Amino acid sequence: MAPDDLDELFGDDLILDHRRHPRNPEHIDDAAIIADGANPFCGDEVHFQIAIDEGGRVSDTGFQGVGCAINQASGSMLSEAIKGKTLGEIRELHDLFSGLMKGRMPNKEQAAVLGDLASLTAVLAFPIRIKCALLPWSALEDGITASPK
Fold first, then answer.
1. Domain with 116 in it
2. pLDDT in tens, 71-97
3. Domain count, the chain
């Protein structure tokens, strides 16, 4: 990937902001869901802790990670996007985001649900980086599946 290509991708201020200032970096000790993911080929890592309130909604998230800007921005955006959502709503968001990373452009309503996550469509110009954007989502899906209901 040429430096100019990276400048084009990272020209999105929102992606850069999430990379430089990740949201929800505090570790949550009493999390109901713990999710970890790693890509051994590039060294990207993500770690999530999710607290669930009595109503079954995400009340707090913790996100820590290392790796490329796309991976870190995606994880940071994800940690914000799931707050207040039920596990079912998170799965729907996961499906929308996965579809986006497969090139399925969202309609107006779906774009509103995706919010800031829609800025990651810039990644589609660099197919090799799609895995970077999906790693946090895969980790979260695994964590939800493994958690006691």
1. 3-146
2. 999 999 999 999 999 999 999 999 999
3. 1
